[in-house]
Each structure stands twice: as structure tokens, then as C-alpha cells.
Amino acid sequence: MSGTTRSSTPTRRRTKATGTKASVETPPTETPPGENQPSEVERERAQRFYRQMLFIRRFEERAQRAYTQALIGGYCHLNLGEEAAIAGLMDELRPEDYLFTNYREHGYALARGIDPNAVMAELFGRVDGVSKGWGGSMHMFDVSHRLLGGYGIVGGQLPIATGAALALQYKGADEIVMCTMGDGTVAIGAFHESLNLASLWDLPIVFVIINNGLGMGTPVAHSSALPDLYRRGDAYRIESARVDGMNPDIVASATATAVDVARGGRPYLLEVVTERLKGHSVVDPAKYRSGDEAARLKGVDPVRAYAQHLTAIGVHDAESIAQLDAEVLREVDAVAAFAAASEFPDTSTLFDYTYASPVPNDSRRLPGDALYPAAPIVGGAA
Amino acid sequence: MTELTYREALRQTLRSELLRDEDVMLMGEEIGVFEGSYKITAGLLEEFGPRRVRDTPIAEEGFTGAAIGAAMLGLRPVVEIMTINFSLLALDQIVNHAAKIHGMFGGQMSVPMVIRTPGGGGQQLGASHSQNIELYYAFVPGLKVVAPSTPADARALLLAAIKDDDPVLFLENLALYNTKGDVPDDLPAATIGKAKVTRPGRDLTLIGYSRMAVVALEVAEELAESDGLDIEVIDLCSLRPLDRETVVESVKKTHAAVMLEDDWLTYGIGAEVAATISDGAFDYLDAPVRRVAMAEVPLPYSKPLESAALPSRQDVVNAIRATLAAVGHRTSEGTR
Fold it and tell me: Can you tell me the mean pLDDT for B243-251?
């Protein structure tokens, strides 16, 4: 399995990509202090990345706890293990770019700059949630931050994101679309139709496959005839690359290339290799993972690895790492308190969002209501 | 006032909307170079170019979903799905996405798109190409479903659908494309969600939509001539929302109803109409509501089999006479 790009596009750019699982287990923490000292810009970015990754980690752990306390309902898919991928991907988008994701998207919402209170309140089903309590964990949406959805149907977001890119091209806009998905998504028809349309029409879109190795409990090798997922770009004349998703700097560098291509008016397919540290969702104990696999996972942690790296290059030290963690934990506590204090939506708003344009004869019946207002009984047919 | 075919009314409306609003664009299979499988988009690629009139690959899920995304970002895409049978390939995008995006995300973005698609049977196209499955869409809150039966309504409802901020499934019918009718030159957009009484009457309410609204009107005229019957005809025009009030008010006057539909009987649109009458005009009914619909089979190719499965005018006449007989109303053929 090679970590380099394998695009058939002659003008491809090579991405610094180290994609094997082996490299993931050996994070780049060995740079001795004094060598390759980071610039001030690099230090700032590294600090930003680490804080974001840590915040997502603590936020998700808090969501997991709230779920077990029955404060969160439905399904709840966490980004644990994907923090570096999210930080790197999101950092390369401009605020005016559009993002479409699947249902494992809390971290993306946070990294786009959406108020964490609104993200947690959505999980709690409260009126202050990003989607006003209508969406829940899988359906975060915030127009002002151009997160155009968390989508719960695997692959559903791909045609929509493709169409958003079409609208941008139609208007001659400079923005691009990023559309993320899981590794299981590449088997569904919408993936192929969307990549084909995006390439045929030269659309400004980056498709991102977050390959954490498992679609629920199914390994990639059991769901994709071509396990090198990025190579599927070849079938659609789309430049593509695979990248190690456990280090935000590497992800950001690969994303920069992808975003450049999209802004130049061509789609791009980026495969980001990550780990899913927990089950598919909060309630999944992941018993399908072998003992060896579970043992291996104990040694894998992108947040810890990046902390070690930043300590090694002198951006952080043990004390500042501990301080930051305490600070983030306090913030996440406050976020959970906000969500718990937020009101549930009033049931009188139940029919408010079925339609955007008012329409006569729209049904507003509650369960058990008569289909038609009962006519006064006039004693038989006239 | 101009006499136009249903096809030409649609074509001219698409053209006038493309001229009116730069955000209106058309997408679909074979709508450009081929000018549309049923020529609804004839000449539009030449006039407006491939940016506004976009040929797509055979990928209903992909291009219907793309229209959703384009609509979210402010375009007003009008998608053509060659026949309603093929819309099943796009079912996930229409039902799980177009219908949900406004509600599921707390009303933050709407999906102002139109899906134009014809239903129909009787063209010897076989089982998978002859369905009338508008019910699948009429079932779904978040979608609007309209079904014009005349050239004028085709124009008025298409204008309304394109201006509407919600996803609208616009049902056409293969058998209607060549039908003619007067279309006022300054016809305004219709109101989605309203039915029409197309012929007032007192003896019985005959309800239909799309092709069967035309059949209803023709049969009512025939029976007025032959039997002296005074039948009220309702064209539903909109299947979601359903204008229950117009139906109920009519039945309160006529005390009897027959529902005509080209879809299958069980669970069909007529079942909902019958339930509406039961709930809204139970005390006024003098006979059970009868429904005339397609036989519940995959529609066969061979002509005699196909004809036997589709509702005919005689089936409609028989249902009306049987209903009136149950009421106790004498017809020229006598009470059955």
C-alpha cells in the first residue's frame, strides 16, 4: 500500500502523504528541539490545531457521557480519533466556502467556528441548537458558518454538495464546496454519480473520504473491491491523493493542494486515513474488533501524539498542556450546562418548518385529530 | 387568449421563466441536444445555451440531488425526469433530502426546485414504464405535488411551482401532451393547494386529477347530453396539499361522489379522498364513495390486456350509474 498519489491526471501535484497504518502508529514526535524550529506562523497554527483537537476530544467525551445520562437521544456518532483530520481539513477552508458532511460531524461544526453551546444544545434537542432541535446529532446545520448539513443517509450529501458546487460555478463565485464522507460511502451509487457529474462539469468541489477502516463493523477490504479508495478518482478523471489523517499538519498540507485544485475549477478526491477509537456510535461496544486490534488502538491517539510532537518542538510543555486541558474541560462543562439549561422547542412550533412558502390546505392535524372539521349533524341527509 | 397544446404551454412557460429569472435553469436527460424525450424543451438549448439548459448523464439520483444543492444556494432548477418511473432512482434525494432540508435543519434553508415528470399508461410501454406513482410523493410532508390537466393549468401551476420556495413535484401525463386548450396570454400563477370545480352540478360529484380530470369532464358532458344528468366535476390540481374543503363542500351539495384515478386502487389517492368525504360529509352521503382506478397488476404490454387494466370511459359511466342507483336516482338505463 503506497502513500503517494496515484492519479492518472498528467498535471497532478504530489502531496506529502504518508498513508500507511504503520506510519500512523509512529507519529512524528522525534524532531529534537533546536532542529527545524517552527516559525511564529507555524507555532500559532500548531497551537490552534492542538486546542481545536483537544476541544473536539473533550466535547465528544462529554457528549458520550451526556448520552449515557439520557440527555442526548437517537444515534450519536463521535469524532474520537478524527480530531487531527478535522483540524487539518477545516483550517484550509475560507469562511465563505461551503461544507457538507455525513452524520459524524460534531467536530466539523466546532472547527468551522460554530458556537459549541449551539452544537451541544442541538444534541440535547433544545431550541438553542444549531438546527433549533430539529436535527439532532446527525443533522447539524448553520447557514452563517456555511455548514450546509450533516446528513444521516450514507451518500445523501454527495449529489447535494455537487449541486452546490454547480451553483457556485453558475454564479461565477470564488467559493468552493467540501464534501466529507466515510469509507463505506464509496460503495453507494450516489458516490459514482456525483464524482462523474463533478468531473464532467468541472465543479469546484473537494470530496473527502474519511477512511477510519470500518463502515460500522465492516472492514474496508470487505466493502470496497478497490481498497485504495482514493484511486477511485481515476475512474472519473479526478485528481486524488491518500494522506495520513492522524497529524493535522500533514492533513492541512494535502488539503491545501485539494482546495487549490477546486478553486481552479476542478474536483479533487482526498482520502484521509484515520482511526475510529470507539464504536460506530456511542451505543456500539465494537465487539467485532479483535483483542489484538483493541490492544493496538490503545497506542493510537492523534491528540496525545500531537501533544508529544508540540512538546518535542517546544511549542508546548507538560505544564502548558495540562493547563490547556483544564481550561478546555472547564469550557466543555460550561457548554454542557448551557445545553441543559436551554429550553426544549415549544410544541406549538411543530408545523412551522414543513414548508418555506405558505400554502393553503397544509395539514396541521395532530395525531387523533379529525381529518376534516366535523360538520354539525343536521339529522341525516338533506 | 391562444389555443395551445399542453406540451406547448409547458414549453412556452419554461421559456418565459428562463427569460424572466436568471436563476432559473433546466436540468435533465436529453433535454438539450435531443430537445426532450417528449419535446417539452424544444429550442431552449439553442436559445439559452448549455449553462441554463443542462443535459445530464443518466443519473437521476445524481442530477436530482444536484438540483437540490443548487436550489439551496439560490438557483431555481427545473429538473425533468423523463418519466415518473425513473424518479424511483432519485427517491432518496427527493424523499430523504428535498422534502426534509427545510424542516430537518430548523427552517434555515429552503429548496426551491421543480421536478417535472410525466406519468401515464396506455402507450404499450410495459409494466416498468407505465406507472402512476405520484402517491409516493403526495405521501410526504415537505413536498408539494401538483397535477395539471389542461394547457392553461399547466402554465399556471408551472409558474407557481417555479416561484415556490419548496420542492414541487409537477406531474404531467403522456396522454395529455397533445391535448389542446385556450391559454390566456396574461394568465397568473395558480395557487398550489387549491382544487377547482371545473363543472358545477347537483347530482353527483366526479373527482379526478391529471388525465382523469379530463375524462371526468368529458363523461359529465356526455351524461348531461345522454341522461340529462347534472354532474359536478372537481379537478384536484394539487395532491399535496389536498384541498379537502372543495371536495367536502361539493359532496354536501350532491350527496354522492365517484373518484377517478390512473393509479392503483388500494391505498391510492382516491382512498384519501374517500376518507375525506367520510370525515367531512358523512351525514350528507346517500351512497358509498366509489373509486375507479387501474387494475392492480403490473401493466401488461399486449394491447387487449393493457386496455382491460386501465380505467375506461365506460368504467366511469358504470360507476356513476351504480352510485346514482344506490342513491335511488333514476337514469336513462334505469336503476340497477
Answer: 97
Convert A276-292 to b/e letters by CB count within 10 Å (16 or more is b).
bbbbbbbeeebeebeee
Q: Has residue A153 been placed in a domain?
A: yes
Q: What domain count does chain A have? A: 1
- Residues A185-207 as b or e (16 or more Cβ within 10 Å = b): bbbbbbbbbbbbbbbebebbbbb
Q: Alpha helix (H) ranges present in A30-111?
A: 40-68, 83-91, 106-111
Interface of B with A in 190-249 (CB under 8 A): 191-194, 238, 241-245, 248
Residue A247, SS3 per DSSP: coil
Closest CA to A120 of A335, A346, A331, A283: A335
Q: Given a cut of 50, is residue A243 above it in pLDDT?
A: yes
Locate the chain A residue with the closest alpha carbon to B67.
A163
This complex has an ipTM of: 0.96
> In this complex, is the C-beta atom of B110 within 8 Å of any C-beta atom belonging to chain A?
yes
Active site residues of B: 60, 129
Picking from B68, B111, B279, the nearest residue to A370 by CB comes out as B279
Decide if A16 is inside a domain. Answer: no
- We report the CATH number of the domain holding residue A72 as 3.40.50.970
Longest distance between any two alpha carbons in chain B, whole Å:
63
Residues with Cβ within 8 Å of B274's Cβ and at least 6 positions away in sequence, in order, are B257, B259, B289, B291
Length in residues, chain B: 336
Q: Which position has the grid cell 508546548?
A: A316
C-alpha cell at A105: 460531524
Give domain status of residue A43, yes or no. Answer: no
Q: Say how far apart CA A305 and CA A84 lie, in whole Å.
A: 10
DSSP classification of residue B137: H
Backbone angles phi, psi at A357, to 5 degrees: -95, 125
A11-25, A219-233, A290-304: range with lowest mean pLDDT: A11-25
Sequence-ordered alpha helix ranges (H) in chain B: 6-20, 44-52, 60-72, 91, 101-104, 134-138, 151-163, 211-227, 244-254, 269-281, 303-309, 313-327
* Reported confidence tier of residue A32, pLDDT bands at 50, 70, 90: low
Range of the domain at A70: 49-345
pLDDT at B336: 40
Closest CA–CA distance from residue B301 to any residue of chain A (Å): 30
Q: Does B72 touch chain A (CB under 8 A)?
A: yes
**Inside any domain, residue A353:** no
Check: CB of residue B42 under 8 Å from CB of residue B35. yes
Cβ–Cβ gap B61/A189 under 8 Å: yes
In this complex, is the C-beta atom of B115 within 8 Å of any C-beta atom belonging to chain A? no
pLDDT, one tens digit per residue, over B106-141 is 999 999 999 999 999 899 999 999 999 999 999 999
Banded pLDDT at A379 (limits 50, 70, 90): low
Mean pLDDT of the A99-120 span: 98
Domains of chain B: 2-183 (3.40.50.970), 196-327 (3.40.50.920)
